[in-house]
Every structure is written in C-alpha cells, then in structure tokens.
Specification:
Oligomer: single chain
Strand order of the largest sheet: 1-3-2
Structural class: alpha+beta
Mean pLDDT: 80
Distance between the termini: 38 Å
Shape: globular
Helix content: 55-70%
Largest sheet: 3 strands, antiparallel
Number of helices: 11
C-alpha cells in the first residue's frame, strides 16, 4: 500500500468562513482558486523536493483532485541507486480540494504463475537477483525502507515550504514599507516573525472558537505595531502576493495538526517510531486514519455549516 501525503485544505464553506472571519483573506472565488493552486503547488513541491533529497523515488505529484491533465516524461536512463524527475507523473485536477504526492514503496513479494499453473509468491530480493538487478541499490529508492527521521522530514516538508514562502513575502513587504525601510534588519525580521505568528494564531483561534474553546486572542506587540501597520498598507497594494503568503500560513497550520491523514498525523507516527524504535502497527494506523478523517470532517466541514 503506497504512502500518500495528502494536503486536506478543502476549498469551500469551512475554509472561507475561518479565513474571512479574521479578515485576512477577502478575495473572489476565481482568485481564491488561483491562489490556492499556487500554495498547494508549493506545499506538494516541498514533499517532492525533500523526498528526492532523501533519495526516495516519487511516483506522482498531483495538484487538485480528479485530474484532467497528466504528464509523464519519457523514462529515465538507468541510474542505479538514484532518482530522477522523470520517475514522476505530474497531474492537475479540476476539484480544488488540495493535492497529494505519492512515493514508491518496496514490495514485500512478487506473485507469479509457475509451470503447473499455481500462483506463487517470490521474495522481492530474489526476484531482483533473477532479473540481474541489485537488491541493495534498488532498496535505497523506497520510502518505506528509509529511517524514521528521513520520513519525518518528508512529512513536514510541505509545511516548511509554505512557512518559508510566507516568511519571504512578509519580509519583503516589511523591508519596503515606510516604517520597515527605516528600521534595522533585525527589527524587520522580528516584525515578520510576529506577523506570521499572528496570522497562524488568529486562524487557530477561529478554529477553536468553532469548538466552543476560547483560549487566546492574538495581538500585535507595541514594539512592532508601527512597522506592521506600515507593512499592512504596503501589502494591501499587492493583494495577490499577500494572499499567497496569508493562505500559506493557514495551509501550514492545518496540515501540521497531529490528525491523520494530515501531514502532522503522519509526522506523529514517525516521531513515535523515533522514540520507541518501533513503527505503529498497520491496524493502529488504519484506525487512526479513520478516526482522524471523522474528526477532520466534523471540525472543518460540519461545524462551520452549523455556525
């Protein structure tokens, strides 16, 4: 069963309600879909880039669901023990529910029919040797043979790429704003980090408020208030770019929640494996995915409709 990292950022009622209630995003439907496509692409490319860096073969990268266009480059040259961008199918769908990136897992065995017509299973290493391939070199390309810390980095890479995107855009706005340009670099950096925390915190506060939980209300500190106010004026003059940064923060927060099948849920399994030295059983993970999916639907679909 292939591992799939799914970006469950759902376009529709729940997300527009959460985001618009904090007056961070206020855009038309088509612009929203366009910005979402950019942000999801950045997120999935984070998984793709980290997987390739860790030596994992990427089977497919898809933006949105129900693909209307897929592209598979011509097969790569035989590169023993290495990955290639030509290994991957690149797809684009019409339903803006997020995206996913899938990785190649090492098979446990290969089924074949013997000379007597009986179905049998051969060990995969034996199958490779009989076909003149190196079992050890091939094993290096699989997701499920990598150590837990590498799989953890692959799981959180999409969130990291979204946060880096938001940070760079916000920092640029701060540095070119009137107050930011007259401040030092470290002051601009401080204001940028605070605004990211404010955006993420405001989104989290809205999610918790739907559950009837009121823990905090994010505020801007007096030290950075003038810079952020000036930054906001500059950013409003470039709404499309600002929307990309804002939505990147929201997507990062939602995906890092420790709820399977979000990225944070998968990362939680890998943290458990790193601590205990044992991977959670497949039965436990299947149950967690079912429970997590129910929680996700309740919190992000049904509750926003009720509210």
């Amino acid at each position: 069963m292939e591992k799939i990292k799914i970006t469950f950022l759902i376009y529709g009622l729940f997300h527009k309600k959460i985001v618009n209630s904090q007056k961070i995003l206020n855009m038309g439907e088509l612009v929203y879909i366009f910005v979402l496509a950019i942000v999801v692409t950045i997120h999935e490319f984070g998984h793709y880039f980290m997987a390739r860096w860790m030596g994992v073969r990427v089977k497919k990268m898809q933006i949105f669901f129900f693909p209307f266009y897929s592209f598979k480059p011509s097969p790569p040259q035989q590169l023993r023990g290495k990955t290639s961008w030509r290994d991957t199918i690149y797809s684009f769908g019409w339903l803006p529910f997020g995206g996913y990136t899938s990785f190649e897992n090492r098979p446990t065995g290969v089924q074949f029919t013997d000379q007597y017509g009986q179905r049998r299973t051969m060990d995969y290493d034996t199958y490779l040797r009989l076909n003149g391939q190196s079992a050890s070199a091939s094993r290096d390309l699989y997701y499920n043979t990598k150590p837990a810390w590498k799989r953890f980095l692959i799981s959180i890479a999409g969130v990291l790429f979204n946060l880096i995107t938001a940070f760079l855009i916000y920092l640029l706005f701060v540095m070119v704003s009137d107050a930011g340009s007259s401040s030092g670099f470290w002051q601009s950096l401080s204001a940028t980090m605070e605004f990211i925390c404010f955006t993420v915190g405001n989104t989290l506060s809205n999610i918790l408020s739907m559950l009837g939980i009121h823990l905090f209300e994010p505020v801007i500190s007096t030290d950075n208030y003038d810079i952020i106010l000036s930054f906001w004026t500059t950013a409003e003059a470039h709404p499309l770019v600002k929307h990309i940064a804002d939505l990147s923060c929201v997507l990062a927060l939602i995906n890092i929640l420790p709820i399977p099948p979000l990225d944070g849920g998968q990362a939680t399994f890998e943290v458990y494996e790193m601590i205990t030295g044992k991977e959670p059983s497949e039965g436990f993970k299947r149950g967690a995915y079912i429970v997590g999916s129910i929680i996700f639907i309740l919190v992000f679909w049904i509750l926003p409709m009720i509210h």
